[in-house]
Design a protein that fits this description.
heterotetramer, A alpha/beta (307), B alpha/beta (334), C alpha/beta (166), D alpha/beta (665), B: 334 residues, alpha/beta, four-stranded antiparallel beta sheet, 21% strand, D: 665 residues, Rossmann fold, FAD/NAD(P)-binding domain, 5 domains, five-stranded parallel beta sheet, 34 strands, 25% strand
Chain lengths: 307, 334, 166, 665
């Protein structure tokens, strides 16, 4: 089961199409730069790249190792990317949801972007060596419940149809498992996970929605969240992080992928997404909406929990 | 002293140490992640994976109290942490890249100011190193002049043997003392050959050339292209066996609290952010430049050593795939 | 003659976050009406429940609260038009999060208490105090606060004492 | 380092009886930053405030905490005192150790410990308090009066006579309210319309009163001195400016038999109508539900006969925005109708009294219409069922009122007096008739009220029976009323021709919805709440909004008029100033941290958040950040709780202040 291969044969053609489109829009002056993926030293690996010359378009690739959500390079990590002109960006369906959210939060303007969508069958899980073949066992957990293999509303999408086998859903199963626990068991589970946290803030830095210039958790007057990586401070940080992403996170799972301590951060995000869907019938990332579920209200909202 | 210890006896040794009240720190699974930590018994030890965090935390904790304060009425009482209270420790299963970084850190912690928090732990800890038989393409100890069998930093070094067990060699008095106190668990070498050692694939850096380039290229457009992708987290520095920057924070309330020392990372925006609001390292490439400079130039300038032992953690766990081995290799070719 | 007071082995610390217009006034009314309730509650006044950041609830637990009460104006009665509507959503989400990380929601009570509901205020405070008294101290956050990373931990008698005291 | 002064009030014995105030002062005196701590019998008294001011000067205090009653009571007092001693008033905080401590706990030890902690919390909070400058805002010197009954009319006339413009909004087609429906008024028995209609005309003719009848409040925005009120002028179908009030349309309207609400549905009116002949404005309105033109498209008689061409079938609702500086709410009351239980009403109903089932069981207001010379019977008391004169009439008091088991515990206040009046009016009109009154107590406090009540018994021969009615039922054309006379201890059975129920006074329907638009509070019966039961009976807790009349609680005419004039005086006081100082509890944006996600703007209930461009010296756009208009900000702080980076902060309730309090626990 776990070694069932997943067909990534379209990625070669997708790579070629991305290169062609990038070359065209750069040479025709449509965009000032294209943010995409390029091969790196390690076998099979890929890393984010900013291409500004048409001649460099050949560097762009797409493979199962192209795990990053590049949306982060359009907001807070944007400082070094050419400011003038449109930016082209290579996006998977999951990444696109973040862009949609960022547009709703006044961080991006659609007209300033050129979206190169990627038909995607899935990418590798975080702990897997980059040269590993994509299988049911090596695929990233988020890809198991992907509903956006083909991004919509992009300026360009290579005409390829990814083959996407039905996979067991990871997060839904994990949420159900945790929900079935007693509060004490859940506490013990999360305590064990959060204890590992070293406050490297990789989760925050890669998150497209953690675009604040000064994170609340970095402030010391008052210190809302302890900065020390002790169990208490870690717990507080992760609760605050999950709460700040509630109703915004569309599940790119970058936080979880980059966590060097393997903390299942996206599980918290998915749980919140599930609750907000149940409470307010809201799902992030499908359309540009001015107000998220926690920025608006309905007079008839559920208040069964309020006496 | 060259000896042999079987896997069984190694575990017996650990159990005996634990029973004697010694703190035995070794890689074990912690909520699904291989991490160093105190063992409760030898069964928990995990020796087939490189722990996610390096061994430095046994001497330079992720977070430690250095002082506490308490206000009673108008009186404030301060209590220093006494390093004498640190526990005697045996650190087991330390890979050469982790072990080699520890003596490198001695330099900075005993330079002008003697950091008793670090040094007392150093004194009280016996390091049992372990040679590597596996490497992936992020490993590059050989590129910085170390090797999968280098005992640098180890008091006692274990090399896995064909047919099981370890060749055991002592390098310091501490190592010898550990062996002598438990001599019956060790045997004379039985002539088995060592397992084939790992062979990291990276070519050796010319560290002199690297430093020479760095000496002259504080300002260089290359930094922009190297670090354009850096998102400014601290994963590389925190996983690194040699990075040792820390931040001191006071935490608590008006009534009572602690002064604490935490790991810090030069990749953070806040690292050089002045109270005035000015930040001399205002952009990410300047911060990443500091990481490379510190490892391959500043530390060399000051202590004649390189602040990198090639463990490859920063490569494996960089969220955006920054590859220090590739970068330094590139520099060495300039 | 005062009625005999029952002594309890455990007196929980209850923190109440209330809005100034309704619940604070309701609590004032309980006072002017000389109603009686357990002395465990400490009230923090906010202009509006809309001002109550979930972090404060977290912080209260971290600072040793055994129970937290959050109370404001009934829907539609908000002095600031809609602050309590926003708060309602925020709290609905936050309590789900706390529940998911293992906080027993029995310790967290939300209520609408108007300026006219002194009796309801008493009922809320008494109910929560009694429930939390039965549940015992909120160990989780207190333990967490004392816990160190293994590498930074030192086994001092003071630390042990602190552990034993919770 | 702060030098905080802490002042613990005994409040006579109100606090010191339960809280060991000296101990509290001693304990908080030890807290870091506290330079001075003392206790005093009455902090709010002159000597108490003197003590405070003296300590500020002599001890060079930087902050002040007064531990006493609720800040809702005396925060202003102490802040003013602090200010007069040269400190910024916002460096003073109160710890509530009375309402929240001494009054609600009996155990002295527990209460003392709690008081020490409450004061300790405020000490930590006040350390983080900042000097806040007062914010001044201009005052729009126009008032809005909601409700055109006697309360609204009086308030509008008083304010307008003082020289200010008034917008008077009335839901019905004419002003006048309930008072216009009454026959004669107690305790003088002068004709209600005779004293009311001149006032109505005064309103119509007043150069500074703009009257919107057949209109409702759609939306209220802004704050004291600067409200923006949107008024919905419902389509009248008659152009007021053109109509001369000749009445031809009403004469010619083919639909004539529509029960007239003004006459409690006893009289009839056409589909185009004024509710009563003296209506102000004397402009008809088309009742679109009953008009043939609107129902079928045919007819159009009224337009044809209207000389000035005032009838306009196409007219639509119009929304008018009026800037005003103050609002008087005078929406009045309604009688509880026990035939139907209004949705959400706390009253359980009085099915046993047959109202709605037995035609000759009526309520007090219907009796008023029967007794009124301009009423449907021309002032004759006649039974609705057969038009006969009732020879035996029973009045039942406290129907709904003072009946906790039915859901209302308050006294409706006016029924004793109007029932006495009814017995008199009855006796004057039906000389051979006999009136019986079932009552619990007669409540007659008021000038000449008890004399009036006695007259009804002694001179007008009403028989008062102390006791309640258990049941009544129709028997032939009689109504059998069964009750008890508890004074004598016997069961009473009266065969009556008519029964009049003094049903409870309730707020108008929709009072809660209006309160929500205004942002004012109301009690569980939907009566509007005053800011203080004794000392601020006319003001709402929401600044700039005042109450007049029965919308605040049951009231008779003299009380209503007094309160209306009082509310008008409050408005005039406000308008006497050009600038208004407002509490500086407003949100401010820390631009350095703002990333322009505008969550604050999305949640701000006041629309106070604007987008502001930050440009560098060359004029290049650096970023767009939020800006809070301090004049518009209501000070709720929802923006701060929502802001992800906490780059907007509510002065007076900063995170630092709140966290300091939490950490003090």
């Amino acid at each position: 089961m776990h070694d069932n291969p997943i067909d990534t044969s379209i990625y070669a053609a997708v790579t070629e199409a991305i290169q062609g489109e990038a070359r065209r829009i750069l040479s025709e002056g449509h965009v000032a730069a294209v943010v995409g993926y390029a091969a790196a030293r390690r076998k099979g690996s890929a890393q984010p790249v900013v291409v500004t010359r048409a001649d460099d378009a050949g560097k762009l690739i797409f493979s199962a190792a192209c795990v990053n959500n590049l949306a982060v390079y359009l907001t807070k990590a944007r400082k070094e990317i050419p400011k003038s002109g449109k930016i082209g960006i290579v996006v998977k369906g999951c990444d696109l949801k973040a862009l949609v959210g960022l547009m709703g939060e006044s961080q991006l303007k659609r007209e300033e972007l050129y979206l190169i969508g990627v038909p995607c069958a899935g990418v590798l899980a975080s702990t897997i060596q980059p040269d590993t073949a994509l299988t049911a066992g090596t695929i990233a957990p988020k890809c198991r419940e992907c509903d956006a293999h083909l991004p919509t509303g992009c300026d360009f999408v290579p005409a390829r149809q990814p083959v996407t086998p039905e996979l067991e859903k990871h997060y839904s199963a994990e949420i159900a498992r945790l929900e079935a626990m007693t509060p004490a068991e859940r506490w013990a589970y999360w305590k064990g996970q959060f204890k590992k946290c070293i406050k490297c803030y990789a989760c925050r830095q890669v998150c497209p929605f953690c675009f604040c210039e000064q994170c609340l958790c970095d402030r010391n007057k008052p210190q809302m969240v302890e900065t020390t990586p002790r169990p208490a401070g870690n717990f507080a940080w992760h609760i605050v992080r999950a709460m700040h992403l509630a109703g915004r996170c569309a599940g790119c799972a970058e936080c979880e992928r980059v966590c060097p301590m393997d903390i299942p951060l996206n599980l918290l995000n998915r749980k919140m997404a599930k609750e907000l869907k149940e409470l307010y019938d809201y799902e992030a990332g499908f359309e540009v909406r001015e107000k998220g579920p926690l920025a608006t209200y309905d007079e008839k909202d559920d208040q069964s929990f309020i006496k | 002293m060259q000896l042999y210890i079987s896997e069984k006896n190694l575990k017996a040794l650990l159990d005996r140490l634990i029973a004697d009240g010694m703190r035995v720190v070794a890689p074990r699974m912690d909520a699904g992640t291989p991490l160093y930590g105190p063992l409760t018994d030898s069964a928990g030890i995990v020796l087939d994976q490189l722990p996610r965090r390096s061994a430095k935390e046994a001497f330079f904790p992720l977070c430690e109290d250095i002082m506490s304060y308490e206000k009673q009425g108008r009186k404030v009482s301060l209590t220093d942490i006494d390093p004498a209270g640190f526990p005697e420790t045996v650190l087991v299963g330390v890979r050469p890249c982790d072990a080699a970084a520890i003596p490198v850190l001695d330099a900075v912690f005993s330079w002008d100011y003697k950091d008793e928090f670090f040094l007392e732990r150093r004194r009280k800890t016996t390091i049992v190193g372990l040679a590597c038989t596996k490497a992936d393409d992020a490993c590059f100890c050989t590129a910085v002049g170390l090797s999968p069998a280098n005992p640098k930093g180890s008091d006692l070094f274990l090399t896995p043997l064909e047919g099981g067990g370890y060749a055991c060699e002592t390098f310091t008095e501490k190592g010898e003392a550990l062996v002598n106190a438990n001599r019956e668990l060790f045997a004379e070498p039985n002539g088995s050959t060592a397992l084939p050692l790992a062979e990291p694939q990276t070519e050796r850096f010319d560290l002199k050339k690297v430093k020479a380039w760095l000496d002259g290229h504080f300002e260089d457009p290359a930094w922009d292209s190297i670090a354009v992708r850096c998102v400014g987290c601290g994963a590389c520095a925190f996983l690194c066996p040699a990075c040792h920057c820390f931040d001191i924070v006071d935490e608590g309330t008006e009534k009572a609290g602690k002064r604490r020392k935490n790991w810090d990372a030069c990749g953070f925006w806040k690292f050089t952010h002045h109270a005035s609001g000015h930040n001399p390292r205002d952009l990410q490439p300047k911060r990443y430049r500091n990481r490379i400079m510190h490892k391959f130039k500043y530390y060399d300038d000051k202590f004649g050593q390189t602040l990198c032992s090639g463990c490859g953690r920063c490569i494996r766990f960089c969220p955006v795939g920054i590859d220090i081995a590739a970068i330094v290799s590139e520099i060495s070719k300039k | 003659m005062h009625p005999e007071k029952t002594k309890h082995a455990f007196e929980p610390k209850i923190i109440a976050f209330v809005c100034t217009w309704c619940t604070y006034a309701g609590a004032d009314l309980a006072g002017t009406s000389r109603m009686q309730y357990p002395a465990n509650v400490r009230v923090l006044k906010f202009p509006c429940t809309g001002r109550i950041d979930p972090v404060f609830i977290l912080k209260a637990f971290q600072q040793g609260a055994d129970g937290v009460l959050v109370s404001g104006c009934h829907p539609g009665d908000c002095h600031y038009i809609a602050g309590n509507f926003h708060a309602r959503r925020r709290f609905a989400a936050f309590r789900k999060l706390l529940e998911f990380v293992g906080v027993d929601l029995g310790r967290l009570q939300f209520s609408w208490v108007s300026a006219a509901e002194g009796g309801k205020w008493v009922e809320m405070v008494t109910g929560l105090t009694e429930r939390v008294r039965l549940m015992g101290p909120m160990q989780e956050f207190k333990e967490l606060a004392l816990e160190e990373q293994w590498s930074g931990a030192i086994n001092t008698p003071e630390l042990q004492e602190a552990y034993n005291s919770i | 380092m702060s030098r905080i002064g802490v002042f613990i009030c005994h409040c006579g014995e109100n606090i010191s009886r339960t809280v060991d105030v000296e101990r509290v002062a001693a304990e908080v005196g030890k807290l870091p930053g506290v330079a001075f701590a003392t206790d005093y019998k009455y902090m709010c008294s002159d000597p108490g405030q003197g003590l405070l001011k003296k300590a500020i000067r002599e001890e060079r205090l930087s902050h002040v905490v007064v531990a006493a009653c609720s800040p809702r009571m005396h925060e202003k007092t102490f802040r003013k005192a602090v200010e007069s001693a040269g400190l910024n008033p916002f460096l003073c905080e109160m710890a509530n150790i009375r309402e929240h401590c001494s009054w609600v706990h009996q155990d002295r030890k527990e209460a003392t410990v709690k008081a020490i902690e409450l004061v300790g919390m405020m000490v930590e909070r006040v350390k983080k308090n900042r000097v806040l400058p007062t914010i001044t805002v201009p005052v729009t010197k126009r008032a809005l009066v909601i409700g055109g009954g006697i309360a609204g009319i009086q308030a509008a006339l008083d304010i307008a006579d003082a020289g200010y413009e008034v917008i008077l909004v009335e839901r019905e087609p004419s002003i006048g309210g309930h008072m216009a429906q009454l026959s004669e008024t107690f305790p003088t028995l002068d004709c209600s319309q005779c004293i009311m209609t001149p006032k109505m005309v005064d309103v119509a003719n007043h150069p500074r009163i703009r009257l919107y009848t057949y209109a409702e409040i759609e939306r209220v925005e802004g704050y004291i001195g600067n409200f923006q009120v949107t008024v919905r002028r419902k389509a009248r179908s008659v152009i007021e400016e053109k109509c001369t009030g000749c009445g031809v349309c009403m004469e010619k309207c083919p639909v004539k038999k529509i029960p007239n609400k003004f006459d409690q549905n006893l009289g009839m009116r056409p589909a185009i109508y004024v509710p009563f002949p003296q209506a102000v404005p004397n402009t008809p309105v088309i009742d679109r539900e009953n008009c043939i033109k609107f129902k079928t498209g045919k007819c159009g008689v009224c337009r044809k006969v209207c000389g000035p061409g005032a009838v306009d079938y196409e007219q639509e609702d119009r929304l008018i925005v009026e800037p005003v500086g103050a609002i008087v709410v005078a929406t009045g009351f309604d009688l509880y109708s026990i035939e139907e239980k209004p949705k959400g009403s706390p009253i359980k109903g009085y099915g046993e009294f047959g109202h709605g089932r037995i035609p000759d069981v009526i309520d007090g207001m219907t009796f008023e219409r029967l007794a009124s010379a301009s009423g449907p019977t021309g002032g004759k008391i006649l039974r609705p069922s057969d038009g006969r004169e009732p020879k035996q009439i029973v009045f039942i008091q406290c129907v709904g009122s003072r009946a906790r088991e039915k859901g209302i515990s308050y006294c409706s206040k006016i029924c004793c007096m109007y029932t006495a009046k009814h017995t008199m009016l009855y006796h004057h009109k039906v000389h051979d008739g006999q009136a019986y009154v079932f009552f619990m107590d007669a409540r007659t406090p008021g000038k000449n009220y008890d004399e009036f009540w006695r007259r009804s018994i002694e001179e007008e021969e009403a028989v008062y029976i102390r006791g309640m009615v258990s049941r009544l039922y129709q028997k032939g054309d009689k109504i059998v009323v069964m009750g008890s006379d508890i004074a004598v201890g016997v069961q009473v059975e009266i065969e009556a021709d008519m029964v009049v129920l003094a049903t409870a006074v309730q707020p108008q329907k929709g009072a809660d919805a209006l309160a929500q638009k205004l942002g004012i509070s109301y009690d569980k019966y939907n009566f509007y709440s005053e800011a203080h039961a004794k000392l601020r009976p006319v003001e709402c807790a929401t600044a700039g909004i005042y109450l007049a009349g029965a919308c605040q609680g049951p009231k008779d005419i003299p009380d209503t008029v007094s309160q209306a004039s009082a509310a008008a005086a409050k408005v005039i006081i406000l308008f006497a100033r050009d600038q208004l100082e407002r509490e500086p509890i407003v949100a401010r944006v820390r631009e350095a941290g703002c990333v322009g996600c505008f969550y604050c703007k999305k949640v701000c209930p006041y629309g106070a958040v604007e987008e502001k461009e930050i440009r560098d010296r060359q004029g290049n756009l650096v970023k767009v950040v939020a800006y809070v208009n301090p004049g518009v900000c209501g000070g709720c702080g929802t923006c701060q709780a929502t802001c992800p980076s906490k780059s907007v902060e509510l002065d007076g309730y900063t995170d630092e202040q709140i966290v300091a309090m939490i950490e003090a626990l």
